[in-house]
Amino acid sequence: MRFHNLSFPEAVAELASQQGVAVPRAPAAREDPAETRQREALLEVQRQAADFYRRCLREGPEGRRGRDYLEARGLDEPTSEAFGLGLAPAGWDG
After folding, report:
1. Does the structure show a pLDDT above 80 at 21?
2. How much is the pTM?
3. What is the arithmetic mean of pLDDT over 53-75?
4. Distance of alpha carbon 29 from the chain centroid
5. What percent of the chain has a predicted confidence (pLDDT) above 70?
6. CB of 12 within 8 A of CB of 6?
7. DSSP string covering 29-90, please?
8. Cα separation of 74 and 82, whole Å?
């Protein structure tokens, strides 16, 4: 999986194909459009929250303290960005 950067199902399918083994597949389930919309809305809220916390890390005095901490731990800005690190500001509304 790691060598070829495959998910588990992809790795199973690849190995089965190499060995000439058929992998049974479950029929695709039909999704309820309401569930799909709800899932998409929740994913959007999560994206917005992640953007907020990343902005908090990049900006302001609290962000400076967070960036200094990460730098002291050996994490530079590109690494922080690559992993989507953020900072939750102090207070109940952050």
Report:
1. yes
2. 0.63
3. 92
4. 25
5. 99
6. no
7. PPPPHHHHHHHHHHHHHHHHHHHHHHHHHHSHHHHHHHHHHHHHTT--HHHHHHTT---PPS
8. 14
